[in-house]
Amino acid sequence: DLEDVARLEEQLEDLFAHSQPQGKAQVELMTIHAAKGLEFDTVIVPGLHRTVRGENRELLRWTRIAGPDGGIVLAPLRAEGAQPDSIYRWIELLEQQRLLRERARLLYVAATRAKHTLHLVGVARASMREREVALNEPSRGSMLRMLWRTLAPQFATAAPSSSMQASGAAAPSPQSLKRLPLTWTPPPAPPALTTPQDSMLDLRSQRPEFDWVSEVSRRVGTLVHRELDRLTRDGALSNDPSRHRARLSAELAELGVPAERCPAACERVLLALERTLSDRRGRWLLGLESPLKEAESEFALSGVAEGQVITGVVDRTFVDAQGVRWVVDFKTSTHEGGGLEAFLAEEVKRYRPQLARYVKLMSAFKPRERIKAALYFPLLQEWREVPVESA
């Protein structure tokens, strides 16, 4: 009886958000079921106080009985006006217990997705009891109820003070309604701080294009950046990256490297990591020689410059012993034969605009720091400072 199916499909297109993050989004919204097996730096679990919708009263309930003499127990819904069936109620209680256990399992899954920070968000209602504010226990079946024994003191601390009611002082009267004069007009809106979406710039998208750089080379660079970031966080590679050859090959395949090209690409990744770890400059950059101040890898920044929103991800930034803030970009470029100095000079020239934008963003973020920029080439074990203006 639907008159226009196509029209319905068009309307449904506008009702759903994309399940995958779009563009460079840093936040992903998903169900707990979809998050199973994944990990995130920060996880936010909202609505812990909410309960699932109750089940309808089934016409026929059944359950299995374990054991050698077990079987299936069936119970029908009671007739209108008849006495409740105890077997039906017993099976109903069993189902409720199973649902509660499933909710507890989902809560465990959600909480263990976080690598660093977990935010649990819920609402507890308060009521006046004998002139004191008391917290009501969360609804049965809610995740907040499962955690209430641990979280109740924190909610009690955040509850509104009842000193005014307890002292007998009169409660403040509601604020009287105030109207604006008929001649009032709103002031002009301030200029927008951001620009339309089509004018947003991504510093990574503005990196120079290389016709001679293959897709495999870009994937190698991506994985080298990822592994250097992992090394700075937990030392996962130790001093022997070759022990992780199988995992690196699998990650290259996930990045889209063809199977026949994975072995050579993996060797290139391992070579970049090994040369970085054997290079004194490389170890200094990673903080393996001595601790660095405020060191960050894959550090995302965004800001407004010349009327446009710019974003970027700095491969490595830190403050050295002399108090200089460094903005370093890793480049997995290779060069064979002579003319190495000319090649590196060309690379510095090529990437100077990109580093200048990074420094401009960092200067806005850390205005009191002296900032320098540099390129580091893991495969070549070469370091080049890049002079740029910070303002």
In short:
The protein has 391 residues and is of the alpha/beta class. It is built from 11 helices and 12 strands. Strands 7, 8, 9, 10, 11 and 12 form a 6-stranded mixed beta sheet that branches. Strands 1-4 form a two-stranded parallel ribbon.
Sheet with most strands: 6 strands, mixed
- Report Rg: 31 Å
> How much beta, percentage-wise?
15-25%
What is the β-strand count?
A: 12
Order of helices and strands: HHEEEHEEEHHHEHHHHEEEHEE
Discrete helix count = 11
Q: What is the terminal separation in angstroms?
A: 66 Å
Describe the protein in words:
A hairpin with a 2-residue loop joins strand 5 and strand 6. The protein has helices at 5-13, 32-35, 86-111, 143-146, 148-158, 163-166, 215-234, 245-254, 262-278, 280-285, 340-365; strands at 40-45, 60-64, 72-76, 114-120, 126-129, 132-135, 201-202, 293-305, 308-319, 324-330, 370-377, 382-386. The chain contains eleven helices and twelve strands. The strands form four sheets. Strands 7, 8, 9, 10, 11 and 12 form a six-stranded mixed beta sheet that branches. A two-stranded parallel ribbon has the order 1-4. The radius of gyration is 31 Å and the shape is extended. It is α/β, with parallel strands linked by helices and 391 residues long. 35% of the residues lie in helices and 20% in strands. Helix 7 crosses helix 9 and helix 8 (245-254) packs across helix 9 (262-278).
